Amino acid sequence: MTEEEAAMRRGTGADRSAIRSRLRRAVALAIVLAPIPPAAAARVLSDGDLASIARIKPLYTDVLNDVARSAQNPDLAGMEGDCVRSTLRALLQIADELKGYEALITTAGELTDFGDDEALRNVLRFAVENALKILDTERRRLGELTETCGRSNLSSGKARQAIQFIDSTQAILRAVQPRL
Questions:
Q1: How do residues 126-147 score in pLDDT, each as one tens digit?
Q2: CA-CA distance, 31 to 47, in Å (whole number)?
Q3: What's the DSSP call for residue 180?
Q4: 40-96 per-position pLDDT tens digit
Q5: Alpha helix (H) ranges present in the chain?
Q6: Predicted TM-score (pTM) of this structure
Q7: Cα–Cα distance for residue pair 33/95, rounded to 1 Å
Q8: If phi over 0 gives left and psi between -120 and 50 gives alpha, with beta otherwise, what is residue 157?
Q9: b vs e for 143-157, b when ≥16 Cβ sit within 10 Å of the residue's Cβ?
């Protein structure tokens, strides 16, 4: 267990600092979930696809902010606090794991002058397929957390909220996937 995780378990002032720090990083990483630049993907994805993808960022930001606020609640203790913080860590891990695909999407944006739609399509396909794999794994983990934290309405509700975000994101990416 890292020092940061130990501090989060103890619920110390370092807990709030660590959560705030990770929250700032996660919001910065939400760019990963931002729409692909229109110039880059217009040849491969439709305006509707781009609009759908653009909905992911606000969904992520909303659920992350809500779970983070709950995790900072000083009255949250014991198993319920652990469960909410686990949900927050899962959301932050999703952002961390998806950040690599931001680079791929950025690279795809730089291919506009290259004029190779198939290369752009391959990069986007790779990014979407791997993002879906990550989301599948995290959804299973959050499902297990929901079962573990089932006795607590608040913590299991936050885990379900994170699962709903994952489900929405997967639906958006799966709708785009056939065109890649």
A1: 889 999 999 999 999 999 988 8
A2: 19
A3: -
A4: 444 677 777 777 877 888 899 999 999 999 999 888 878 888 999 999 999 999 988
A5: 3-10, 13-29, 38-41, 47-54, 56-71, 78-110, 117-148, 153-176
A6: 0.73
A7: 8
A8: alpha
A9: eebbebbeebeebbb
